[in-house]
Design a protein that fits this description.
Strand order of the largest sheet: 7-8-10-13-9-2-18-17
Shape: elongated
Oligomer: single chain
Structural class: alpha+beta
Number of strands: 20
Length: about 700
Amino acid sequence: MPPASTRAISSVERFFQFSLLGLVASGFFALAGSRYLDRPTLWLTFFALVLRGAMIAGWVKVTIPIRLVSAAAIGYVLFYPIDFYFLSHDFFTATLHGVCFLAAIKILTAEANRDYLYTAAVAFMELIGAALLSFQPSFFGWLALYILFAIAAFTSAEIRRGFERNEVIVHPARATVSWRLAVVTGAATCGILIITAGLFLIVPRTARAAAMLFPNAPRLTGYSNFVDLGGFGEISRDTRPVMHVLSYSRDLPRNVKWRGTALSHFDGKRWSEPPMTATDVTAVHGTPLQHTAEVAGTLQRSRRDGRRLLYRVDVNSSDTGTLFIAGTPEFINFTAPRLVRTAEDSFRVLPVTGEELRYEVSAHWGPPLASSLTRAERSRYLQLPPINTRIWSQARTWAGDEGTAAERARRIQEHLRRDYKYSLESTNQPVRDPLSHFLFVTRRGYCEYFASAMAVMLRTQGIPSRVVTGFQNGYFNEVSGLNVIRASDAHAWVEAWMPLPGRPDAQGWITLDPTPSAEAPRSSGLSARINMYLDAADSMWQQWVMAYDLGHQAILAAKFEGTLRALSQARLSTDKPWKAGFRTGLKSWTGWVVGLVVILALARLLRPRWKRLLLHLSARRIVQRGGTAHDASVLYAHMLDALARRGFHKPAWSTPLEFAMQLPAPEGVTVRRFTDLYYSVRFGGDAAGAVQMVEILRSWGK
């Protein structure tokens, strides 16, 4: 059996190796959560981490030749410009690939202290990259693990260096020191996180710096200010939340559409906004941090038909600044410097910073008001590129020659909803005429195909129309109390200018949706509940971490002040409700106190049993593996307990040997033998002596 000092060194070495591996792994997984790494990079680094873990555990023995490592390094130096110019097309992404490659090489070949220091530096680079790119709450978990492993690696490295400097150890450390290092590491990590949380509440920060450093980083998924035919397919498979809505009034209407912007220019393959000047909306009142704007006239704001909606919208980082609005907006509260209205009756905030958008809207939910079109606007909404003549004839056949414009539009909508199928499996292969391919070949497609087909057909019939993009539906999160809109809820529909229902003498913009209903299967049960909790955590992370600023500080200060004021009023009040509340609280606390007293009493009664059980488990381990200095101290304490039950108590000023010499026979002989073994194990490293100490205790019935 190896001596205790050797086993102590081995235990510390293994703890250090696993800590360093965890350091690299936590940095890597934090970086992987940013979604910037491709699959080959992910699998290569993950395989290296698993292989290194198996090597440290002793399951696998692998020796990589230095020549092979040098050849791989030279090869990657040559591969880097290829990755930059032809694969990644981005300096930062190519650099991340290089960092992961270095991490994989170093964790497999690290042997010297210089290699370990280099590996720790690579892990730190991974964490910095993840901090700049990650916008998910999972980063906090990986950061906490990184701090944990960093403290573990630092403490074990210091102990390891002490072993290296002292070849002869007079008083060897306990062989199994890993759990002690783990406890110290965990306590230090908790302290650091608590201090960091305090600083977090004091120092505001913003995501603007990251947006400035990485202007090409992914923003709001599922929406853009143009629509390519066939572009919604991949978006419809992305279930990431992109928008959260808090309704201050009643529940939101079913199948509510969150209108982003309208697109009126069509070139045969893409819908886009015309290059027209937007007009600024003047704020009527507000504070330096929040402005309120009236965006509707007196007639709209005085309406009594329909209902009012009052809600707050939190949009994930967007590079368009577009506001998504349900209903006809009347008032908008916003925090940006400028609010503009586009020529297509949508709203945007300027400048676009890439941060989270938060705004409040008071809107009317009901039929639209009448509106007018100028000759130039009517011409814009009827303009068409050269299209297949079959589309003209098909539109005339579906619309018919009789009826009003609204009736002909409804016929076209019904044909599309009845005779065509919504599908995510439609081919995304580029074709010369995607609209004709959809109408006469595949007869199935995404929502933008249906919206484009109807808008074009309406224009062939002389009905002004435009394609609208935004979001639809979503689901209500019972945990957070927010309505969640995902990227897969991105949608396109049609607005047509025609006579209003019940008012043939007035015309306005009517919403039409020719896309057949295709409800996506919703998860239920435990998985749905877990998703709700994860989304609630993500929403809290986005609000209180990514967007934490002076406004959030003011909210926290106001809540703290309100709590103190309520406590002060409750203390000064002598009303009976306060006394009743105090009695209720006293009763609830009494139950907890009684339960705690019962638990402590049971622990006191069962203490001898627990001590005997722990001694039995320690004795088995000592017999199998040998004892250490710590084990000798524990066994000696059990021996003193046994003597105390026989009436012999050791004075505090007496040494173990003096106490043994004072005892009468036959206890004195046995105790002197036990004391000699105690000295040899504790100060001489005699692991076998601990086994004899266990046998003596067993002979006493311990």
